[in-house]
Amino acid sequence: MPDLALACSLGVLGAVLVAVVRSPAGRTEATWSVPAAVLVVAVGWVAPAEAVDTLQRLAPTLAFLAAMFVLARVADCAGLFQAVAQRLARAGRRGPDA
Hints:
Layout: H1 3-22, H2 29-42, H3 48-77, H4 80-94
Helix pairs in contact: 1-2
């Protein structure tokens, strides 16, 4: 990848990271990252074959990450995180000697 293409790709990555952090609630990371990835390939900063090769190599990791997001969402909807937070708050009020 030429230096200009790398710099442009990194600029797009930076813009995506800012957009994800500042995006309104309800928008997923994919809202920003998928169009950015398509843009980077469409303008030729990354070759389509290179993008496909990278996706194939990362597929198991991406599948695991997606599964973790689903599991976290299910746990959140079931109230697990809220229950743990309440127990930790109660334990924190008792102090270390309790």
